[in-house]
Specification:
There is one protein chain. This protein is mostly helical. It is built from nine helices and no strands. Helices cover 54% and strands 0% of the residues. It is globular, with a radius of gyration of 18 Å. The structure holds protoporphyrin IX containing FE (HEM). The site of protoporphyrin IX containing FE has 22 residues, from helix 4, helix 5, helix 6 and helix 7.
Length: 167
């Protein structure tokens, strides 16, 4: 009996983290989303090695400015406005900053949804994917990120095309 209890407790303690963390409270200003499992694996890419790329992106402040610029621009770019018209931009800014920071090895955890499920219902085309990449490149250029560093981030994001593009 005691053995069974110990085994059950060990299983909960050691196996539960593999299923991710429980849902945190909804941050101020954000809409509620359906429950999902929080895990860095949802970011769709592992962090780069070393700290040099995070530094090349001007750290947290640089990432923040780039994402703010990107999110502002997707609301103005006629190729993208329709897709983003119902989006929660407060949440999008937060989760994108976490994702970029995580991938650039800035020490952040990603708490957003996985790339396949979050984009599944948007019917995104390759042309729209390319438009978003262009908008991101422009935001990085405005921040003064050197092209070699831009391309290292883009190389991490490129394989996510297969999850984001559905038609
Ligand atoms: C590598 C490419 C991409 C990355 C890394 C990315 C990342 C993200 C992230 C982190 C979120 C928020 C996740 C969450 O709310 O939990 C998101 C949501 C969204 N993304 Fe992307 N995305 C990519 C490509 C695209 C493209 C190409 C489009 C459309 C042209 C797009 C449209 C959207 C929309 C509309 C949402 C909001 C979904 C909603 O509110 O339900 N994404 N994306």
């Amino acid at each position: 009996m005691r053995m069974a209890l110990v085994c059950t407790l060990s299983a909960i303690i050691f196996v539960a983290p593999a299923f991710g963390q429980p849902m945190p409270p909804v941050p101020p200003g954000e809409e509620t989303v359906d429950a999902y499992t929080i895990s860095d694996a949802n970011a769709g890419a592992t962090p780069v090695d070393g700290q040099d790329l995070f530094a090349a992106f001007h750290g947290h402040e640089g990432i923040s400015r780039i994402v703010d610029g990107l999110v502002e621009q997707v609301q103005k770019d006629s190729r993208l406005t329709e897709i983003f018209k119902a989006s929660d931009f407060v949440r999008l800014r937060r989760t994108l900053k976490e994702q970029f920071c995580h991938i650039l090895n800035g020490g952040c955890s990603y708490t957003g949804r996985d790339m396949k499920s979050v984009h599944a219902d948007h019917g995104i085309t390759t042309a729209e994917f390319n438009a978003l990449v262009e908008v991101l490149q422009a935001a990085m250029t405005r921040e003064g990120i050197v092209f070699s560093a831009q391309n290292r981030l883009l190389a991490k994001l490129a394989p996510m095309k297969r999850d984001a593009v559905t038609r």
